[in-house]
């Protein structure tokens, strides 16, 4: 449903204990007392490695639960994972990016036993060989190597109770026979995403307040099928298919509006209804050839992605009074907003390994994307009655991306290693509209080239001390929905405006890490974002390019490039196990400093400028800094000797901080859980945000007198009950997991 999308990264870091193991005394009796320290968490040249097999937290957990307890990772909504200081976390399995969409991937991780995981790699600053955007990081899940043929799988059912009730179920299976490997998943569910809003904006003389509820029912079904065949000892061929469908019918907005002007106060109701359905299908063909015994290999991928979204909205405004009665309808806006995306992709990678610990990687990729947005917008006015205002717009966007990279990785000694590389990208795009309101919107052509360097260095000072540094340059291209020039209406005077003029932003990331005993660490991050893509509010009386002034003040949330931004963070963390691993706790604390430097004085899509009631031009600015405290701790308490009962206590706190929309007030959440493992069954109860403190509040006061306030309750307080059953031969492994050539495009469809 129409809502303001807020994104924030919760800094979370941990480190893990050292496990001792008795040495072999069969041959040398005089070293009987010597122990060997197992490195559970360590830093390599370009990644952190968490040895799950040596950690007690894996027992009885799902992969998703395990990831939430992995150093540097966190989840604030129990759906998505974030890496500390990063915008997004991309999931890889055995070095290959998962070919699932976010919803089915979350269910897959929640239904995969953590006992199947050997280690988890967290790549905070990905190298040039990875196709990632902005400051995205990578989580690589390495499965245990199990060679037995057979069939295994799991079934999972869960029910979540918050304002409404929701349910989810999934079935997964893996089959291995000789050279053939097949894996499949089917999952689905339904829920109602509920929100309660208070939106308040205006000046000392005028104001507009909207309060009410948004209910968004969702039904989902999807899955994947992967077929992998080993042609011979050196080559594999694989075909994968992913599908996901969502239906959200009768999604409703009910907001009561209080509009105060110098002429008095009026009251209205905004009652909106929306029907949406979307489909996402992709197919990927992969060929892998091993060229020598050192691990050199060639990878070739070809993929096709088809995404369809059909959205129909009926937005109605009714007269009202101070008693909130529903009166005569004054306006009605019908919107038909379809979007169809077709993407063809190809990718070739070659890694050459040498005996002297040298690896050279070279590769290239090509993406061709076409989006078709045939929008229709009709406005009816009844007070007074006016002729319908029809504004269709057929917007087509074509994009071609050519990319090539080269990386060189070298281990110089037992203590020193490094990696250097660069990616070169060429982007050609053209957006055309057959019925745009301005000539500038009828043809928007953008062609640009980018050289994106990368560098990492790791120095193991001794067995206890390690220091590393990484630098990376990345781009962030706008999502396809962000450049579709349509309005998403919330009320008559409050809506979001997409922008086809949004250009790609550039991000420069630096990270310095110090580790002590592989158990304590300090991480310093710095990101500089140029031409940051975000959403900012413009409010006042709109003045069109021909000088016509709107009769009422409005608030538009504009998608745009909003100046430059810097993000800096510093955090320390520790993880320990006490009382013979009955209690495992991790705690981290850090600070984040944001520097915002942006301003906007015009709606780039319509050309409208804004004035206050005195006729003075209005410019929205955000040139403020903020420093925030961040705290998070996760605790797992084993309640019995047999390791079948577990109790969890998790807590996070994020201090107030400055974002593009204004000052985000502090957030925190306390979560409790209880889990019982019985043979192949796992029963769990999770109580999330039990204090009901994870509620978004944003305030912004401008020097020109404008203010803006947002209060958003997403009903994060909930109770979830889940039941999981694992069946079959648990030693089955997949032949391999395949990276899709269209993966870099998929994230821009959502």
TrEMBL record:
It is a multi-pass membrane protein. It is found in: Cell outer membrane. The keyword Transmembrane applies. Residues 1-18 form the signal peptide. Residues 290-725 form the Outer membrane protein beta-barrel domain. Keywords: Cell outer membrane, Membrane, Receptor, Signal, Transmembrane, Transmembrane beta strand, Transport. One of its GO terms (cellular component) is cell outer membrane. GO terms for molecular function: siderophore uptake transmembrane transporter activity. Pfam families: OMP_b-brl_3. It comes from the Bacteria. GO terms for biological process: siderophore transmembrane transport. This is Outer membrane receptor proteins, mostly Fe transport. It comes from Chryseobacterium rhizoplanae. Its main location: membrane.
């Amino acid at each position: 449903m129409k809502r303001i999308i807020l994104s924030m990264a919760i800094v979370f870091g941990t480190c893990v204990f050292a496990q001792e193991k008795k040495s072999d005394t069969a041959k040398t009796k005089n070293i009987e007392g010597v122990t060997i320290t197992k490195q559970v968490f360590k830093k390599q040249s370009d990644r952190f490695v968490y040895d799950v097999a040596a950690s007690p937290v894996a027992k009885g957990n799902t992969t998703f639960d395990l990831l939430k307890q992995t150093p540097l990772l966190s989840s604030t909504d129990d759906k998505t994972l974030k890496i500390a200081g990063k915008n997004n976390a991309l999931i890889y399995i055995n070095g290959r990016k998962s070919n699932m969409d976010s919803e089915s991937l979350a269910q897959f991780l929640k239904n995969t036993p953590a006992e199947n995981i050997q280690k988890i790699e967290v790549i905070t600053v990905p190298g040039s060989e990875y196709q990632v955007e902005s400051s995205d990081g990578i989580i690589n899940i390495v499965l245990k190597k199990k060679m037995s043929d057979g069939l295994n799988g799991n079934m999972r059912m869960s029910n979540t109770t918050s304002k409404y009730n929701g349910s989810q179920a999934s079935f997964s299976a893996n089959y291995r026979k000789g050279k053939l490997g097949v894996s499949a998943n089917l999952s689905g569910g339904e829920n109602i995403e509920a929100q309660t809003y208070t939106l308040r904006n205006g000046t000392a003389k005028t104001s507009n307040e909207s309060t009410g509820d948004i209910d968004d029912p969702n039904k989902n079904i999807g899955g994947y099928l992967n077929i992998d065949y080993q042609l011979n000892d050196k080559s594999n061929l694989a075909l994968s298919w992913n599908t996901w469908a969502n239906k959200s019918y009768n999604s409703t907005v009910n907001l009561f509006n209080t509009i105060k002007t110098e002429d008095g106060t009026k009251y209205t109701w905004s009652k909106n209804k929306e029907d949406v359905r979307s489909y996402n299908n992709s197919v990927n063909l992969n060929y892998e050839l091993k060229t020598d015994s050192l691990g050199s290999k060639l990878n070739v991928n070809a993929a096709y992605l088809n995404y369809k979204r059909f959205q129909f909205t009926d937005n109605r405004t009714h007269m009202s009074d101070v008693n909130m009665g529903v009166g005569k309808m004054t306006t009605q806006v019908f919107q038909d907003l379809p979007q169809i995306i077709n993407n063809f992709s190809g990718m070739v990678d070659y890694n050459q390994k040498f005996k002297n610990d040298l690896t050279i990687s070279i590769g290239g990729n090509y993406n061709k994307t076409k989006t078709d947005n045939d929008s229709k917008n009709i406005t009816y006015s009844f007070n007074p009655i006016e002729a319908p205002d029809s504004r269709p717009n057929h917007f087509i966007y074509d994009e071609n991306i050519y990319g090539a990279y080269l990386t060189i990785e070298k281990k110089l000694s037992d203590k020193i290693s490094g990696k250097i590389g660069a990616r070169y990208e060429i982007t050609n795009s053209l957006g055309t509209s057959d019925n745009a309101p301005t000539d500038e919107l009828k043809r928007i052509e953008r062609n640009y080239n980018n050289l994106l360097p990368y560098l990492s260095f790791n120095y193991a000072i001794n067995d206890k001390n390690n220091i590393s540094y990484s630098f990376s340059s990345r781009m962030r291209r706008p999502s396809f929905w962000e450049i579709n020039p349509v309005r998403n209406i919330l009320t008559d005077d409050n809506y979001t405006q997409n922008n086809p003029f949004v250009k790609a932003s550039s991000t420069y990331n630096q990270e310095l890490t110090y580790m002590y005993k592989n158990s304590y660490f300090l991480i310093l991050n710095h990101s500089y974002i140029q031409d940051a893509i975000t959403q900012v509010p413009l409010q006042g009386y709109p003045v069109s390019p021909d000088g016509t002034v709107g009769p009422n003040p409005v608030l538009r949330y504009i998608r745009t490039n909003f100046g430059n931004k810097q993000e800096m963070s510093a955090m320390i963390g520790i993880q320990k196990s006490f009382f013979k691993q009955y209690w495992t706790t991790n705690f981290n604390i850090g600070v984040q400093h944001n520097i915002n430097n942006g301003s906007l004085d015009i709606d780039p899509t319509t050309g409208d400028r804004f004035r206050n009631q005195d006729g003075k031009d209005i410019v929205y600015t955000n040139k403020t800094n903020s420093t925030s405290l961040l705290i998070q701790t996760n605790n797992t308490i084993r309640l019995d000797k047999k390791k079948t009962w577990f109790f969890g206590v998790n807590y996070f706190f994020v201090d107030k901080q400055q974002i593009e929309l204004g000052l985000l007030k502090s957030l925190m959440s306390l979560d409790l859980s209880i889990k019982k493992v019985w043979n192949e069954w796992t029963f769990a109860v999770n109580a999330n945000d039990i204090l009901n403190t994870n509620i978004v509040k944003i305030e912004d006061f401008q020097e020109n007198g404008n203010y803006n306030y947002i209060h958003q309750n997403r009903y994060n307080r909930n109770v979830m009950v889940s039941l999981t059953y694992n069946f079959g031969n648990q030693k089955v492994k997949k032949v391999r997991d395949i990276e899709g050539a269209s993966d870099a495009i998929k994230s821009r469809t959502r």
